[in-house]
Amino acid sequence: VQLQASGGGLVQPGGSLRLSCVASGSFFSMDIEGWYRQAPGKQRELVATISSGGITNYAAFVKGRFTISRDNAKTSVYLQMNSLKSEDTAVYYCKASIDGAVKWGQGTLVTVSS
Fold first, then answer.
1. Residue 22 to residue 58: CA distance in whole angstroms
2. Among 19, 50, 106, 110, which residue has the least CB neighbours within 10 Å?
3. At a CB cut-off of 8 Å and minimum separation 6, what does 1 contact?
4. C-alpha distances in angstroms, 9 versus 6, 42, 58, 64, 111?
């Protein structure tokens, strides 16, 4: 089973990026829970989650700027990031529960800089 995160890159302050997390492979149960991020020298922190029922939760520092969503098949989760700030610079990871075990994607680097 693979959890592939993509969509990161270099963007100027105020810009936008859309991250994708796609699960592939064979599994009995899979739930992509959401996105976390880890900036250099800091601990990994929650950015946004989405429940199997579609209920979303956001960290205070991204509310109103980021939107988490998923596809109908529930094998992909997206993070639309608008009004990016330099402090959003981090490696972004998606997290999933697959067959009862926690699995992390490999991370995608987001750099916000002019």
1. 20
2. 106
3. 23, 24, 25, 26, 27, 30, 98, 99, 103
4. 9, 20, 22, 21, 6
d(CA 70, CA 76): 6
Digit-by-digit pLDDT tens for the chain (114 residues) are 889 999 999 999 999 999 999 998 888 888 889 999 999 999 999 999 999 889 999 999 998 999 999 987 778 999 999 999 999 999 999 999 989 899 999 999 999 999
Query: CA neighbours within 13 Å on the CB side: how many for 102?
Result: 6
17, HSE (Cβ side, Cα atoms, 13 Å)? 22
Q: What per-residue confidence (pLDDT) applies to 30?
A: 82
Task: Determine the Cα–Cα distance for residues 82 and 7; give it in Å rounded to an integer.
Answer: 13
Tokens encoding 47: 């950015």
Q: Residue 30 CB: number of other CB atoms within 10 A?
A: 17
Residue from 30, 66, 70, 21 nearest 50 by CA: 70
